Amino acid sequence: MDEVKKTDEGQSPIEHRENFIAALTETGKAIRAHIREIDTVMLRAVAQNPTLERCHQKTWSTRLERMNRALSDFERCVLLRPSLCVMGRRGAGKTTLLNSWLGKTKKQKGVPLKALPYGTEDTTACLVRITSKRDDDTSNSIEVSLLDKNCMSGNLEEDSPRPPRPDRDFFKVRRDDQDRVFCLARFPVYGNREDKGGDETRSLQEADGIFVLDETGRGAVRFEDIQWHAREICIPMDVRSEDCGRAGSVLSEVDIVDSPGADSTKQGDFGDWKKVKNTKVFQVAVNELDILLLTASSQPSSINIGGQFQEDVMYPWSRRCQSESEGRLFVLLTHATELLKNAMRALDEEEDEEDIAAQNNSFGRMLYKNILMPLFATAPDGTPPIVQKDDVTTWPPIFFYDKDYDFLNRLTQSVPTGSGAEMAERLYGFLDGDPLGNDLSDAEKCILFLVQECDDIAYENRQVDLSSFKRWLVRSLCAFLDPSDRGLELLTESIVKYASRGPVAIAHAREREKLLEDILASYKNFLDGFSLSRANFQAEEEITRASKLVRKALGAGRYDHKMHFGRNCRRLLEQASQNNQVELQGHSRPTCSEQDVLNAVVSDTLQDELWTRNIDEEDKQALSATLRQCLLHTPAIARLFNAKKGAFEENRGEMTILMAAALERIPGIVEFLRDIDDVDRARLAQNYFEADPNEMELLREIYTNHLAEEWTEVSTLFEQARSECAAHLKSLQDNPMIKSFENTLFQNSFQNTISLVKEDVQS
Known about the structure:
By secondary structure, this protein is of the alpha/beta class. The chain has helices at about 15-50, 55-80, 95-105, 180, 225-230, 245-250, 270-285, 315-320, 335-350, 355-360, 365-370, 405-410, 420-430, 440-455, 465-480, 490-500, 505-535, 540-555, 565-585, 595-605, 610-615, 615-630, 635-645, 650-675, 680-685, 695-735, 740-745, 750-760, and strands spanning about 85-90, 125-130, 140-145, 170-175, 205, 210-215, 220, 230-235, 255-260, 290-295, 330-335, 400. The two termini are about 20 Å apart.
């Protein structure tokens, strides 16, 4: 733990976060090292003892693979910083926003944002993560992760054609040709106008774990196969330069994720796949995204977000957030000049205010019906929405953006640069009832007109107090009309605030604390496998004892036991009949397991005079245990139980069949136990008792010689990580964040917070 800094109460939240992440990383490394050592010991034993190889492949190779997969997921999620996911319908302006928001830098290094994936008629097909550069190894490559092999199962028709999938789950692709490589984020586009030929002619050629584009089509991996199955593309950016502007401020705190468009259509090749994949991509990644920025166009024809942010997206998000939306849900209205133009036309026509408010296309009515109402829905499983209809404090802050600078410049000719906050303070007074002079600018008149229309938000519930929400809209619209802001600076400040010290930072830390608890539990369960298997170490001795008891009872003669149902079997059969009647009356019924059936059959068998005469009660119990285990693992009996799947509980006929089959098998099992030799005894212990003596010896060696010391080390690292998490959460809670609506994100305390964050980033 030398890499982990000592906890200091004077450290900033960002420093505490670094310590916490470092502690989690060290814990994961220690567990992986232990798993690797155990695997090495077992493989060495397998090489020396071929009889153990089958058991290793059947049991422990699967367990090792499962544990390594859990570790990989843990390590990946630990390193993920808070993520802002930009979501919206196709054409809502997501990529345009990203280019304006992050692309205007003086000396931007790394990936040019003009090379971001862009939608076609088939729209973007995966998540595109823009992240600050983590190491020099990523400077010239992008990282591509694929959907899990079985991710789409159950979402497509059985006979639906599916595109082929590469064997790998992860690719690192060199950006030798940026424009073409970034097209990886789209569904395959055959015969692209910009290129000669289509995606089907391209491939990726591997060299030392790095893939590069191969235009010959003879590479190791088909280019279009990756396109179809891409889950996420991670694009690194170097934001260490002081000249990176907003890109540096934002990406120093969060990753920006561009999500697929909402309305992929069922057309062309693999139409079913296209229709489902975009939604599935989000559902798979929902736990890796910390903030949703829902974008919707202000154009009347496309403002509705209900088609995207309902069952497929919002319900998984609500379950993940546990109905806590503070700082985790923003709404951004693109093409916002459409709102201002409508306001200017209405003001020019001097229409009556009440008539405007009554119109169905008023700004307030549109905002409520098309933006807010889709967020009020309760999930089918009862999960409450993260936005409460009657609680304005849960509503997401609304931001505005547009690239129509010609109109904005004309409208804001009289608005001095950097005056957005001052203009907002002046307009707050009007909302509080203060009179305004006649010197309002056109921009201010439009703002007040739109905010006054928001009274129509409460047309279904007039009891809702909209004052704080309207103050926020004033602040957001003033920022949008500020020539030095255009809404993007306010958006940047808000994201930095919530991701560094606010509720997003707290939720991010708690979720990683949960990851730590889960990976430790997985590791403990893995280790328990060694001790649990040792419980069957005496299996051979038990079989040997049962064999001696059978020989004692039978001698050299045959076992001519007549099949019959004794007292125990008849009792269960009668219970099955009663269960059927009870269930019809609507009452609960006693359960009956397969073990109950086997116990009844074996008990009735051993009550025969042959067994009661020759062996005592203790020996009978020992023989009973062996007979039950042999019956349970007899293939014919196991198949019958599997086929019935509990149906015998209320069906006397079905139970009769099971009992008869078990009774019929017992004579063969008894004579097998009488004549068993050493080879058969070991095989029976391995297959019927799932206890291989060789494996037991191996596991005993590993448990004794390796696990005790390793577990102590992991426990120490775990406690250190938990302590670092507690310190990090305390540092966040000691810096309480103000509510966006209550204080409009523009009080002195917020400005002080931003200054501290910038100092942290620079350090």
